[in-house]
Amino acid sequence: MANRVTIVDAMAGDRTIRRFRLRVRGVVQGVGFRPFAFALARKMGLSGFVLNDNAGVLIEVEGFGADAFARAVKTDAPPLSRIDTIEAHEIDTNGLTGFEIRESVGGKSATRIGADAATCRDCLDELFDPESRFFHYPFVNCTHCGPRLTITRRLPYDRAQTSMAGFVMCPACRADYENPLNRRFHAEPVACPACGPKLSHSVAEIAQAIRAGQIIALKGIGGFHLLCDAENENAIATLRRRKARDEKPFAVMLRDVAAAHRFAEITDAETALLESPAHPVVLAASQGNLPHGIAPGLTRVGVMLAYAPVHHLLLAALEEGSNVPVLVATSANPGGEPLVASNEDAHRRLSGIADLIVTHDRDIVVRADDSVMQIVAQAPAYLRRARGYVPEPVDLGSDGPSVIALGSDLKNTICVTRGREAYLSQHIGGLDNAEAIRFQRETVAHLCSILDVTPDYAACDLHPDFRSVRLAEGLDLPLIRVQHHVAHIAAVVAEHHLAGPVTGLALDGHGYGPGGTIWGGERIDLDGADWTHKGGLRPLPLAGGDKAAREPWRMGIGALYQAGREDLARALFASHPMAEKLISLFGLGMRVGLTSSMGRLFDAAAAIAGVRLVQHYEGQAAMEFEAMVTAPEVLADGYSLTGGQLDFMPLLIHLAENHVTVAESANLFHGTLIAGLAEWIAATRSPLDQGRVVLSGGCIMNRVLAEGLVNRLEAQGLTVFLPRAAPANDGGIALGQVAFARHVIEKHKLHSEEIETCA
Amino acid sequence: LSHGAGGRAMGQLIEDIFHTAFDNDWLRAGNDQSAFTVPAGRMVMTTDGYVVSPLFFPGGNIGSLAVHGTINDVAMSGAKPLYLSASFIIEEGFPLADLAKIADTMGAASREAGVPIITGDTKVVERGKADGVFISTAGVGILPEGIDMRSNAARSGDCVIVSGSIGDHGVAVMSKRENLEFDTDILSDSAALHTLTAAMVAVGGTSIRLMRDPTRGGIAATLNEIAHQSSVGFRIDEEKIPLKPEVAAACEFLGLDPLNVANEGKLVAVVAPEAADAVLAAMLAHPLGQEAALIGHVVEDPHCFVQMETSFGGGRIVDWLSGEQLPRIC
Ligand SMILES: [Fe+3]
Ligand SMILES: [Mg+2]
Ligand SMILES: [Zn+2]
Ligand SMILES: [Zn+2]
Fold first, then answer.
1. Residues of A marked as catalytic
2. What pLDDT score was predicted for residue B174?
3. Are strands B306-309 and B233-237 parallel, antiparallel or unpaired?
4. YrdC-like domain location, by residue (chain A) (predicted)?
């Protein structure tokens, strides 16, 4: 991601003694940058110094080849660093010898805390080296790896401000910590068996319990996992029963990509993602040899590599001969509440689920779930952004006031801007329980604290009953309310720095539209603070409100009834006990809301196609429908376009009328959707959009749909922008809210004292 | 029903309808006001407007609501309701027969409750200026010695009692309005609760911190209001909340949360823990409290959350809605 590197041209190689001052900006603190510069200068025989200040890292080097030093800083930078810019200036030599690491100077205002990183290669070697003092030590880490955000209470990032504060370094660790040539120089969480945290149980005990088919709650980096043997059907069934998680897919954890190949087909792009320092869960094509209970009805499985030393130790202990151990590793979040992170909480909330609760004595200060990603159109896309990525900022491309956005009520994240950076929080989750709302408030306070900002404005959704909106209203800041789908599109516009008008398409579940309309499949032109609704999908009856989102049969009947095809509704849904009742109530004139949602259109089609009538988790029908696609096909005349409205009713009727098989329906539905949407864009796009189309909303996580649309639109000569820096679903709403709010503030030249609200 | 010129005879006709239906000494006196003797002690007074659609629903009509609602507003303070007034805004063209039906229902409700309507007024307005009939009622009552309930009185540890099954009224109204026919008839619970509150106050006295009738917005709105006014939280237990199976089924079908659905003959009481059993027993012994239940407790909570333990063991936040239940699922 290193970009905008500028090194002055004057630095061509020569053999004179010269002195340069280098200003390095980006993620350069707490990632081993100073010892790296120290070691590099020593190796090159240069004198000078390096220090951290509030703008990043400042280096002065003097000697023969000082110019080569600047180039090496760029090319050999430490693995967890991210250099945004290097500016170099030649200055007068001073003839002094020696290179030193100087004390940090200045405030904390521009410093960053790094994201948590998976155990590095060097630490892994020590973990399994009987000669090392870190042999089998479950908390080994160095400047290239280990916890960061999840242990940090406040700035500046040093040990006293982390949950390592209570652990006094032993002489060996202290020596490493203070030695600029050591990999652990200023690694704040440095620890060893003599001085550091300890696990409550031995790895052998945990492994024994796994082998016995038990469910383990294991404290990790950002919270507790629930683990069990992924090849033991009974253990999986027990976990599902105890967690009351009927069918939602579980992720599996393995030692490395080679091990993962046994269960999943993993592409090069997926390998790179799996092995990146964040170690996210990556959705990959399943080999079909894991028990059905892992991801029922799906053809892809969430794979993640061991990322904490304890994971490696456990998997090693479970390895017997050629057997490759594979574990179910799912977040310990009972009843849909946020992740369990404290020892007390684990004993209180997990005792009914886990047979063995394994804790340790290093507190998790900040909760962070595992991030979940997939490759879409050859590049990584988030499904959930948390551990390993937070708190890396999204560059907004320009400066502006500090805005805090409270996001959406589902898959909630919040976002705070500082200068040109937008800090999107980790996944907080659905705000339907007190624990999640507390987590949100905690995150607001923590994020502002580690960024050292006090926001001047707040932004939130339009929905009058969103809890996130209530919290925003309680912040006592000028409040900018941003329409849900405008926010979805604005998030993508912001991360790609798209200036001027764009053609936007939000394919989503539900968002509060102007005047209380129920939106979710919208064509929106966006240009800074100005947006125009160019049309929506044909609105379908939403019988039972949110109930209809859980029960696709309601959408199926509603759509067919609306089309005047009660006969088809009766014939297709005869098996559902309430179908007749719903049809007769429609007949009696029951008033129902209408929704232009793409998510609900998916539900209607999935119900009509016979995928499922009732969902056990959000998006289940659509995910299973996607999983059935083999080769998308277009149904000629499957859609119609009138004014700005796109209508797929002919497709739904076709699926209902012609006894199309489920697999064939999946192909026809996806193919026709892609064709219709592409034609819609062509017909409604503004000539001013410079050929730029932005796709966003939860349905863009459907890979078949997203890639199909990208291909079609690119074939029309358009450039397509997808959500890359934040999830396409509501996890990205807060980013869109801050970005849109900054445009509103700028457009109206608002001063925080001057406005109450505006929209 | 006509309005304006030539309306004099009509005006008289309307007066007669109400006088006959409400018949009592005060109205017979024919004054524009009524005098009554004020007992010693503190009085309470309330007023409320009734605008419902439809006007007639299973188990009642706008007239019974207007009487019961105002009696209940007085009764929730712990007071004994004494007298009511009633004022009507009638849309031109409204059928006289319907008006007579509403008046008869009101008269019967007031007689049954023993709280007479002692003064009133009627106005006929042009078509379109009203929707059928609007009723405004006021009520006065007298507080027993020492009773002084306040909305900010709930404290951590107190018990929450509901007098019976929730959601009946709202679902009954909706089934009529939406033309919904369910397998069983769901009737509105519209009722005057003052004899129930009197029985509760007799055993609970000042241990009853406060009472509310959870009308519009249901018990969710009521508990949230109390939580904010008292700066406390609530923890209630889904399984303990009385709910008729047919109401549950209708809510499930319509996608409604019964906690947000209106009641017209139920009350929620917050009672000090030491008196909870006695108050509950008194309620169970009363015809309008036979299904009363202790549904939860007041807890300390700086965020004033109303939380419900669900059958799955989760803790769901019970919301206060701005209006209708809007979809949220994205
Ligand atoms: Fe959304
Ligand atoms: Mg009132
Ligand atoms: Zn390391
Ligand atoms: Zn040590």
1. 34, 52
2. 84
3. parallel
4. 200-388
